[in-house]
Amino acid sequence: LSNIPPISSSSEIRIIAMEPFMSSSGVFILSSSLQGTSLNIEFGLMQIVGLFTFRLETTDSENSVRASGNISIMVEPIPVPTVLIDTLYPKSSAGGSLVGTARNIQVLLQYLPPLTEVNRINATMDTMNSGRVGLDVLSLNLIDSFCADILCSLHSMVFQLPAGGNPDGHDVSDVVNMTISANNQAIGSFPFTYVSSSAPMLVSFSPSSQVVTDAGAENISVFIKNFPSVDCSQSSCVSDMSNLEVIFGQSNGSIVQYYDTGDLIAIVMLSPQVNQAGAVTVTVKAVSIRTSLPVSIDVPFAYSTPVAQVFPVDGSVLGGTRVTITAQGWGNLSNFIRNPEDIQVTFAGRNALVESVLMGLSNSTFSMIRSVVRTPRMDQNTSGAVMCSISPSLALGGSSSVQSSFSWMYFTQPIIQNLNPPRATVGGFSGSSEGNTVLVTVQDLPPISTIGEVKFFFLQGSVQKRASVLSFQPALGLTFFTITVPPSDTPTVDSQASVQLLLEREGFESRIASTNAFGYYVPVPSIFSIRWCKECNIGAACILNGRCGKSIMPLSLRLPIDVEGYLIVVVKNMFNVSVGSVIDPTSLFLQFADGVTRPLLRVSSQTDAFGNFATVGLEFSLGNVSSAQCSMRLMVNSTRSALSLGGLSCFQPSLSIQCRDELNLNSSMCAGPSEQSSAPFYFVVRIFGLSTLKPEELPTVSFGVFQAASVERLKSDSDSMDLRIRPPSNNAFSQSSLSVPLVIVTANGTSSVSTVWTFWKAPSFVSAKFDTLGTRIVVLFDQATNQGGMGSSDQNCSTLLYQTTVVQLSSDDSAICSWVTNQQLTIVLRSGATIQPNDVLRFMPGKIRSANLVSPFMKDAIVKVDIPSVVYAPVISVVGPPVVDPCSSLYFYATGTSPRDLKYKWTCSNDNTLDRALRNLPPSPSVSLQAGTPEMTTSDKTYIISVTAIDFFGMSSEPKTLLI
Q1: Is residue 821 situated within a structural domain?
Q2: Nearest to 107 by CA among 177, 161, 176, 157
Q3: What is the residue range of 176's domain?
Q4: What φ, ψ does residue 12 adopt, rounded to 5°?
Q5: pTM exceeds 0.70
């Protein structure tokens, strides 16, 4: 099943029978994923012949139908045993006495009960003069040992000709009738040819037909007995032969070589080049030097019309695709084709419009016509491959014998179903995690293997801009693309744009989809942060690093009254404001409530810039700010409304505070773990301005909405007081750290002082993914870490991971764990790695914490390993002989490149017997068939064998085909 959500339980499946005897006794899920679902549905014994339908439904947790469809099963009658006459080998024999295996005849019997014994099979021969002769049956073998019923039953039978040769005489050439019986019931009769012991006998002629374009280029091999005389096999047939000729109809072929092989003569020849398909008789003749007598043998042969060549090979069901068709093998008739009405072309039985004839020519060895047609329109549900033909019109003598066939693919044009998000700023910012990407959902797009096959464009009027394709993912019959958004061509006004998809492939019609549902908008500036510093170092330390002079933390959203300092305002979506830009003092300034203004002092570098819009830092020198000036606003320019700094508050700077590590009173970091452990965390604050408090007047301490777990007074002097504080636990946030106000209030509530305190959580996983080649696993954390305490030379995975995980990374503990950055751990897999997608990595506790060593350690941590964002299908090749004789064994194999062993699936598309044998093989890269290749039941047949490889990501290669 395809195009359905994955199924986790058989309880989600309902089988609705249309007939009472079609009831299902069980449903089992073989596999289920976004790529498809495979089910095993068990039914009872089918006792009525015909076409029957049942309905399959998948349900959700509320038993509502999610997906449904009808499935039809053709119940066929149990077939009667039969002889596969085409598999008889050999079909003729010399009339003289035979010894050993030369007497053996092999044939395949179908639909016998699998356990039939050899003594239940009889073989007889009816001759012209000697009556009926019994034949010895030597063996009866079931080809598929796993076959348990008649439908799959195929037996190989071997029986013997009479040892004395043709009962009617050694020098008699005649046809006898052979009959095979099972359980005393005849199951098949067939002719068998006895050839006079002295007459030439054809043993093999391969191939028995050629397309006209292969004539004169592909070798034909002939094996003949008693040629040119009956006695030549005892010495040398080559030395006994003169005047060897081969004639195809009325034209001479050419001899490539001839040689003795056992008691046969082998002749390799080339057919003459011809311009038209048709049947001819091939005559091989020579003169025996020993007897001076001419000898000849005739063989039927056929020239066939090659498949017509078309360009392109597919087009829309709406029709109208211009297709160039080239056909060969029509003979002299090609010279008379000049006009569109001289030929007729059909696609799935519908006539195409012939626009022109580009070429029509023929000589004695070649014929070709080339025309241009327009495809007919088809129904929307006709998408897929259709059979087509091109032939001369009836007025020129067109008939079924002069016709070229070809296949063609109809498709429905893809549709852009959705854009998420459907808009972006004029600079291209969409709000995605990458900043400037959009997820495009496309329906009816054919499978693609690389990003480069598809192009996306954004069109605004006559302006077209290319978008970069970052990734794609097929699922549920749709294809999801992540593409970048180019900046708008009109950056100062809102506008609409058309998004267009283009899929171009050599030999295929371009596929195009577009939508007008995308919009650009001009973003409105907004205040992101406000910070105050008493002093700033020379340069841009305040505005770039977020630190005041002497590395002191700035005040956020708080401003001391009557103290000179600097205000840093970070504004999002500023247009054309950046380092190096010339700022007009009248267009960007700070204005107090009393009307006093302050000009811009410095501008930071751009961050998150898309187009000319950026998040920028603006630095102003405030001077002494009075309480009446606390309300202020940022004037952007004369055409926009001012931006209020409403979140800013003023305070009297009577108190000050410094955070210190308990062990190092020279540290000034105000931060701690998000939760307390068995070894409690304490820190010390030094407060200036509270020296007059009595010892029993202990201040209250809060961290945002939480009270301190404990507060202890360490010392007081004329300048300051030290407090030893144990912060509370606070895990009520999702990011790696959370900054809250650390507020200390005197016991009487008359004075307070505050700063910013940061809680740090233990690091957590962002993702763990295989790389594209499957040789590495990349683990990303949500923050900078201490790298698990590993030094630069430590690459031992056992330092971080449980041994149950380490043994999955290689067979000999040689896997490497190295930190690319303090947020990215790369695991290099080695030989014998067994870890698979959806397996987990298990990290030991007490190893990984934040890089500043403030957060708690990660506890037992488990992360699932996902497949990479971009997965490439394996590429394989297949090797095997083009021809195998009926007595030899057969070996062919496939090769491919992958860090893990590939699983190979072999099939045969034009022979059910070989297909069943191949599908039952283990997923090996090679196939070996025993001597006589019993799985290949038909002689003089080209078997189409395909192989597909599946890697450990579950990706399948393109099928590779081998013709034998």
Answers
A1: yes
A2: 157
A3: 96-195
A4: -85, 5
A5: no
